[in-house]
Amino acid sequence: MLVALLPGDGIGPEVLVEARRVLDAVLGDAITYEEAPVGGAAYHAAGHPLPDATLNLARRADAILFGAVGDPACDSLERALRPEQAILGLRRALGLFANLRPAKLFAELADASALRPEIARAIDLVIVRELTGDVYFGEKGRRETADGLRQGYDVMAYDEAEVRRIARIGFETARKRQRRLTSVDKANVLETSQLWRDVMIEVAADYPDVALDHLYVDNAAMQLVRAPGQFDVIVTGNLFGDILSDQASMCVGSIGLLPSASLDERGKGLYEPIHGSAPDIAGQGKANPLAAILSAAMMLRHSLGRAADADRIEAAVAAALAGGARTGDLGGTASTRAMADAVLAAL
Ligand SMILES: NC(=O)C1=CN([C@@H]2O[C@H](COP(=O)(O)OP(=O)(O)OC[C@H]3O[C@@H](n4cnc5c(N)ncnc54)[C@H](O)[C@@H]3O)[C@@H](O)[C@H]2O)C=CC1
Ligand SMILES: CC(C)CC(=O)C(=O)O
Ligand SMILES: [Mg+2]
Predict the structure, then answer these.
(1) Residue in 242, 271, 309, 329 annotated catalytic
(2) pTM for this structure?
(3) 217 near 109, Cβ under 8 Å?
(4) Per-residue model confidence as pLDDT tens digits over 193-232
(5) For domain 113-252, is the CATH number 3.40.50.920?
(6) ipTM of the complex
(7) Do 218 and 185 form a contact (C-beta atoms < 8 A)?
(8) CA-based, 20 to 30 A from 140: which of 82, 111, 199, 325?
(9) Architecture of domain 1-109+265-347
(10) Any catalytic annotation for residue 246?
(11) Residues with C-beta atoms within 5 A of ion ligand 3
(12) pLDDT, tens digit, for every residue of 240-284?
């Protein structure tokens, strides 16, 4: 089994090294790793955020473990050379259209949630986010209006095949859980969303055992803090899913907790924390490594056929939290390394 390790920028390398330690403890040398630069690190080393050698490694590997990309020093580069293009490029090139972002409250963290504990305790949901379409990948640019004003534009578009395939992932995911699927859109305003809703309803005919409902994204954002326990599986587009998943992370305690899987049609995947490179805390040993460690667990389950090992890692994370280990984002003082040590000790 070959795993591509793409640490990236900022806290990406700091959290990925801890995920690797946990994988080594669980699997020994059952996995071969190859590492390659990506994002700002790759731009500085090779002049491009996603060098051919990195993309080729990602293609060859059985799975990809990704840290984060983003470097303030690159924010004035032309867009094609910015670090974020690396993760967008990987998603596009590898066809990673299905992004699973589970958010479940660890019982020990009820007091770390931004919500009242009695509300937070009910959270056990999965956001299924479409990842290769929408406004992130539409035509974009700058132009001048008839009045001579500068204008920026980004085209939001989905075709029915793109919606149908993510709908199926949403229904299949719900089928393995509580059989409730909430589709989030903005069909009262956006034509893209009206098509999204129409296709969701068509696909629902193949899943009579799953209850489908629809929410506008503004209401969904409100419901997510009012009563998050109502959600089982949420299926939504690229932009709305990006925003709602950061929001869901604070409902369970921290953005440093949420892992993700980005899957292609055949189940090959890239695994990464949902957070970014966190330049404000990079290099200080403060980053919470749990999102990266839980992403490694998702990789074992979804791409490497090691569900029992994934269970073991997730149980160790819960035990470490139960033992009181907390990084700063969770109100504690543990360093990145100390938090991972607590997980290793609980394996
Ligand atoms: N998949 C990726 O590689 C992503 C990259 N980014 C990039 O990351 C850079 C920073 O973006 P931001 O908007 O600041 O989002 P961010 O997720 O990096 O950070 C947001 C806030 O959460 C905190 N935070 C994030 N991860 C944490 C962790 N593991 N432990 C403790 N605290 C944590 C940060 O310190 C910061 O205050 C940008 O260049 C952005 O484009 C953002 C999101 C995803
Ligand atoms: C960095 C962006 C391209 C994406 C993002 O914020 C995310 O996927 O969560
Ligand atoms: Mg995001």
Answers:
(1) 242
(2) 0.98
(3) no
(4) 999 999 999 999 999 999 999 999 999 999 999 999 999 9
(5) no
(6) 0.99
(7) no
(8) 199
(9) 3-Layer(aba) Sandwich (3.40)
(10) yes
(11) 242
(12) 999 999 999 999 999 999 999 999 999 899 999 999 999 999 999
